[in-house]
Design goal:
By secondary structure, the chain is of the alpha+beta class. It contains 12 helices and 41 strands.
Length: 743
Amino acid sequence: MLRGLIGMPPKAKQSGGPYAQAAGEEPRSCFSLMENPLRFPPAVAYDAAMRNLTCCPALCALAGACFLVTVSARAQKPGFPSNEDLRLVRSLSGPQLSPNGKDVLLEVADSTAKGGKEHLWLINIQQNTARQLTFTPVKDSSADLRGEYDASWMPDGGSVLFLAHRGKHTQLFRLPMDGGEGRPYDLKVLPRVDESKAPDVIPPVKNPTTEKAAPLEIDVAYYSVSPNGKFIAITARDPETPGEREELEEKADAVWVDHNPHGTRLYLLNPADGKLTPTGVPPNVRRVAWSKQGNRLVAIASGMNHLAELHPANSAWLLDVSHPAHPEKLKEIPATVEGGTWSEDGRAFYFLAQSVADTPPGYDDLYALHFSGAKVADLTGGFSGSLGYGLPIATRTGVLQTVQIGTSVTMLEALGRTHRVLHFPMTVVRQLETNAKQTGWVWLGTGSTTPTTLYYDARLGDQPIALHAPSVIPAAWTPVKAKIVHWTNEGFRLEGLLYLPPQANAGHKVPLIVDVHGGPTGAWVDDYSQFNEFLLGHGWAVFEPNPRGSTGYGAKFVAANHNDLGGGDYRDIMTGVDAVVAHDPIDSTRMALMGYSYGGEMAGFVEGKTARFKAIIAGAPVIDQESEYGTESGSWYDRWFYGLPWEHAAAAWRQSPLAWAAHAKTPMLLLQGEADTTDPLGQSEEMYRALRQMGVLVDLIEYPRENHVPLAEGIFGMPSPEPWHGFDARQRIVQFINAAFAK
């Protein structure tokens, strides 16, 4: 239900290797604060995101008539991006410093107009030059083609690894740096599961065979290289057997819900001889962390068949590579563990897990497990910001963790139980990485006037240099610096970001777009948003409030909307609007509100609680808490807010926008992905029916094939494989708002 995140780049990575969600892994909340990559304005605004969004397709009808305005470049002020320009935006992610500290491996996603595929680039630090390393074969037109992604250096620096879908499978490739083509490892396993061999199989097998099972090729979901290069940890879902495939072809395809024996398992690959060894770590394995010595690892598993619907279900397993069949469960690590890293000396394991304070699921503290005494210490309890945007990085003196403090994202250095905040020239720092010898540091930095940029520093705290990487935006657009707005409400000190178009600086009052982030455990941060630039180009101011429940302001603040969705958070937003109108050149008669995910849910509350806005736009909203709870992909997150809805029906209904629909008057545009598993299609359809039957102008736009985050990425100008959905949604947003402001 309520998910979304903070602003971020295209994807987050775990220190020491690629980070990717394993097949079969259960999502934490739409966007996890830890791994959210997008900027979630109506959010992803993510991952991204957060770790934020808005969406739509169908012409808007006004006063019973079909109203269509063609949005052209002429509608946009000079110096700001047009709708088409946002189809030309690229993204950067996953910087990896080479073992010798001379080069950076970088993933660059093509623009939407070019298919949104990812490729690897090599950035030379001394020469400050960039060249593309990988290209997707034109003949390979697989439906789920992503390009080349999740790249990592081999420890000797002589080659790089990456994942790519070629033909029928996602494979692990190795590309030599001295020339030559990237070649995949031939990875096959004996199937551990073959449901077609069950005694009660349908249709019955007339002549059952006793042939020995043959090894089958796997799809690699995730991998991580040991620091000594002797092993590569690989996760893959159990392959489909010929018998199971034949069952599907025969349409013997009944699904026994939550009884699927297939899981995502951990294997050890010897890169020298290609031998693949199974391990005894139980499925579903999400990620691993290698010890610095390369002889042990900690694997994080999430349990099978939606176990996390019942309770936190992650577990940590210690595996010695010399005994792969016999992992040891680390009982001291809680079931909310997200991942971590080893200390330099191998005596401790730093990890993220649920805060000791009473906070929404996914709001983490940083802990240390000391193996000698099997004791766990909380290193960040009481921290006034929020942890997220990636996993910890061990240093020679302590551990680094990305944190959000208000509207900035930076690094926190924990030295035992003491910690200090590092300061950078940019307001948002993400995906900080180093090499094994820590001879340098690379990261992606951004700010409201600076698109995502790759930075390098030989030593943290020195003056970083911006490296020459592919530009993410196609042209230089007019930069608009965010203004931090402060106000108070009901004892809370609140803040948000305000962007004013050039007309406001000339003394003219301008319309206002209020944009609510995703979450609720999300936030707006002072990073770059091409979507904001697009809105500013229409002469509209943009206000991004961080109401109670947002991250970046400590545990008490993030928990302040407990059992109060659409209550105090709604009032925080409205008093923020009052503050902006009182102190800035805003035309209070022309205001619109939008949001995606939780932001869309809040838009639903606004619809039924006030008539101050001329238009409301809700992307992938939660409308009815009870029906959402029963149909979403993960409910544990929502349970914290109001409990089991059938036990707390009054509380769930009070916190449902649908409960207020009888008071609705404002024209509303609903944008929804048809394949959304986070906030399912039925939520938007419920609101559409309610408003339509109440006689309120409402349009519902549904996008085929789109899930929650991908649709958000497309709308907000991130690279997307869907060439026109984002363009269509942005055009409809502008049309809908213009029509409302014209009345």
